[in-house]
Amino acid sequence: MQTQNEPIELHYWPTPNGWKISIMLEELGVPYAVHYVNIGAGDQFKPEFLAIAPNNRMPAIVDPEGPGGPISVFESGAILQYLGRKFGKFYPAEERARVAVEEWLFWQIGGLGPMAGQAHHFRNYAPEKIAYGIDRYTNEVNRLYGVMNKRLEENRYLGGAEYSIADMASIGWVKPYKDQGQDIEDFPNLKRWFEEVMARPAVAKGLEVGKAEREKLNLAANKDAQSVLFGQRSRG
Ligand SMILES: N[C@@H](CCC(=O)N[C@@H](CS)C(=O)NCC(=O)O)C(=O)O
Q: How far apart are the CA of 186 and the centre of ligand 1, in A?
């Protein structure tokens, strides 16, 4: 595997999107340095962060040993692909296997993540309980869990036979299944996958990164943090 001498800079907050990258870096076993982007305090709007992540969303990385010099990457899917290509792990080189991993990676990025995020919002954070929003996103997450459950009936992992960046992308979004109004017992293949992936030491370590900061922020009870995060409009 390609060596990494200088640590990869990880701009991170412990959430399902951030965990994807802490898990991948733990799986790879390469050196990395965590820079907390406290999204409840507005760190994502600092000019130095926006310079590498113009969408004011973490995660982002800076690899000091990028191709031809340092490189920054934002968007969790692009980061997983970059790291997978660079280190030749968890992202198969063979085209058919790669396409399958990409299908499930983009399925997570475009489907499971946004829909589960909305389910969290309407179920747990919205100041009013809006039944239509709660039902719409809870049902959609339920449908998506059914899709995963079916995929995992004949495949050990989302991308196929091998554990990959597709599994790393989804695991953090299935972890809070209760907050999405789901019962994992309804999805036996998904449950089998969930338990297997959660038992990986690197996944456990990745999920621990910044746990204390997350607890300190306590978004569910923190109105100031909620007002930073919810209702954002263009800043021009
Ligand atoms: N599509 C992005 C989504 C990242 C994302 O939504 N990050 C959230 C935390 S999970 C964030 O940084 N939020 C800051 C904000 O809303 O201002 C990715 O996959 O990297």
A: 29
